[in-house]
Inverse folding.
């Protein structure tokens, strides 16, 4: 991988590893609706003009039905559920639970008719990863924490199904247009609830900075860097950063929010990440993706989980 590829890869590891930190900060003072609206509106404000200049939204309009389903599963539901869950869970725990997306994705793909054979290593990965989720969640299965864990698991399901929608029904929609359109739709939908739940006074500078970072850094900049990474190194190698994001989430929570780094977190981290790697091993006969030098990334690249 080129030096530029490594730089883009490292940046993505951070950009989609730190949203959990900023969400945790923001929900202390503003409603879930305000958090989601701020993030989607700021992201859309940056990406919509870029998408328009790169070819317009004709493809998105032609596929508006699957686009709405994709938006619901990737943004509308997950970003609200994550924000609500982090009122009860630490940011590091949330990031680790989201790391189960590749594992659930394999299971759902099989249920949806994927005929690719799962060898012993991939089956072992599924079991190990699910064991890691159980180790992490079991001590918190009571009261508000149990509800919050359920919300994060719904996010995991949404993040697992959304790429299937993109791959099967949105192949003709370039990823920049897909992301910009989804963010714009989500911002419009959350504008009303956000206006109805605005705080009585201006949030603290810490919270305003967190909202700005969510929209401009973790959404607009992250999507832009993501497309460049896929063009530079190809889909398979580019998506490896999703295995690093949970580590970034844990480190950020411990360093900046003083969240505990317990033996349970470390054990679940090893199990979930190890299981994810094993469960998504490519069969030896399957050819690797090749870098795309100039054409826009298509919907098949939209397989990450932008928290």
């Amino acid at each position: 991988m080129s030096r530029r590829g490594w730089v883009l890869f490292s940046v993505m590891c951070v950009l989609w590893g730190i949203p959990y930190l900023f969400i945790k900060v923001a929900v202390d003072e503003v409603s879930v609706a305000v958090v989601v609206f701020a993030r989607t509106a700021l992201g859309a404000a940056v990406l919509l003009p870029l998408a328009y200049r790169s070819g317009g939204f004709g493809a998105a309009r032609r596929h508006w039905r699957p686009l709405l389903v994709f938006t619901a599963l990737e943004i509308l539901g997950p970003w609200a559920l994550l924000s609500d869950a982090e009122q009860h869970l630490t940011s590091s725990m949330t990031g680790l639970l989201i790391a189960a997306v590749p594992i659930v994705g394999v299971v759902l793909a099989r249920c949806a008719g994927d005929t690719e054979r799962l060898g012993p290593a991939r089956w072992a990965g599924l079991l190990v990863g699910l064991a890691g989720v159980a180790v992490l969640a079991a001590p918190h299965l009571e009261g508000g924490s149990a509800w919050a864990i359920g919300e994060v698991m719904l996010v995991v399901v949404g993040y697992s199904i959304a790429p299937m929608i993109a791959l099967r029904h949105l192949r003709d929609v370039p990823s920049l247009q897909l992301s910009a359109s989804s963010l714009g739709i989500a911002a419009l939908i959350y504008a009303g609830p956000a206006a109805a739940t605005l705080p009585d006074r201006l949030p603290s500078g810490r919270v305003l900075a967190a909202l700005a970072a969510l929209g401009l850094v973790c959404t607009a900049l992250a999507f832009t860097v993501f497309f460049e990474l896929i063009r530079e190194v190809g889909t398979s190698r580019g998506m490896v950063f999703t295995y690093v994001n949970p580590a970034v989430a844990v480190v950020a929570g411990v360093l900046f929010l003083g969240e505990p780094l317990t033996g349970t977190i470390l054990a679940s981290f090893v199990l979930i990440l190890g299981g994810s790697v094993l469960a998504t091993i490519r069969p030896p006969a399957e050819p690797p993706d090749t870098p795309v030098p100039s054409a826009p990334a298509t919907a098949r690249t939209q397989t990450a989980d932008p928290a």
Observations:
- Confidence is low (pLDDT under 50) at residues 288-303.
- The CA atoms of residues 158 and 256 lie 28 Å apart.
- DSSP finds 14 helices and no strands in the chain.
